[in-house]
Amino acid sequence: MQTVRTLHALREAVAEFRAEGARVALVPTMGALHAGHMALIEAARGPGVRVVASIFVNPKQFGPNEDLARYPRREAGDARMLAEHGCDLLWAPAVEEMYPDGFATTVSVAGGLTDVLDGAARPGHFDGVATVVLKLFNQVRPDVAYFGEKDWQQLAVVRRMAADLDCGVEIVGVPTQREDDGLALSSRNIYLDEGERARALALPRALGVAARAIGRGEPADAALADARGALESAGFDVDYVALVDAETLGEADAGRPRRLLAAARIGTTRLIDNVAVEEVQRVNLSVTMFG
């Protein structure tokens, strides 16, 4: 696996892939890689496909009081993982390469996708996401890009931006990968101490119970209130627990795909998770096994 750090070297490497007749798949990451990221690499691989992974801790998507400075950075280990899983090229630019002196452009996705949920809790976050993802698309010029479904709102924002701006990139969501006990894999899980890690299981459990209740027709408001109460009882400071339309993130109507999303902080660590309400059988299995 080759590692490149300048846009010129990246363009040369991708041009070689194109000269081979290969399709190019992009897996954007901020590093601190785990099995969830490797699932994206595995999904991207295929005959005639070259996989490009990016590692860039994007300062524009962190708020002033968030964890940019302490966000885990371990490029050497990440590169080994990527190579072992068949990644062809690592794009690892410095901040100065991504945002050179004089950089003055911001990409915003307006409306209901970005002013609710994490958009409300983290002002400006999705402008930073949209800006860096569009830059990655323009730099790598992939045919397809893979994103994890754990950050469902981010996936929805990227899909909207790619469609609105005619990026010509297919956006593929890959199901959330979980630990054996049900906790969604996240680079931020390393912040959890032993006690917090045990209490963090309340997040997938609460979502599972609420999804089961909503799926069998019980009032959504009561299910959401119960989920919030369960999280608070476990020691979480809850940002939101919400039932939304899976595509628009607006009001969830029966007959359309619905998604249950939550964000909550335990100690100093903010965790997010989500489940599809229609996936009642899978969610119930998690609750039975780990509840």
UniProtKB/TrEMBL annotation:
Pfam families, A to Z: Pantoate_ligase
Entry-linked Gene3D superfamilies: HUPs, Pantoate-beta-alanine ligase, C-terminal domain
Documented EC number(s): 6.3.2.1
UniProt-annotated binding residues for beta-alanine: 61
Residues at the catalytic site: 37 (proton donor)
Pathway: Cofactor biosynthesis; (R)-pantothenate biosynthesis; (R)-pantothenate from (R)-pantoate and beta-alanine: step 1/1
Keywords, ordered alphabetically: ATP-binding, Cytoplasm, Ligase, Nucleotide-binding, Pantothenate biosynthesis
Note: The reaction proceeds by a bi uni uni bi ping pong mechanism.
NCBIfam families noted in UniProt: panC
Subunit structure: Homodimer.
Record protein name field: Pantothenate synthetase
Organism: Sphingomonas lenta
Gene it is expressed from: panC
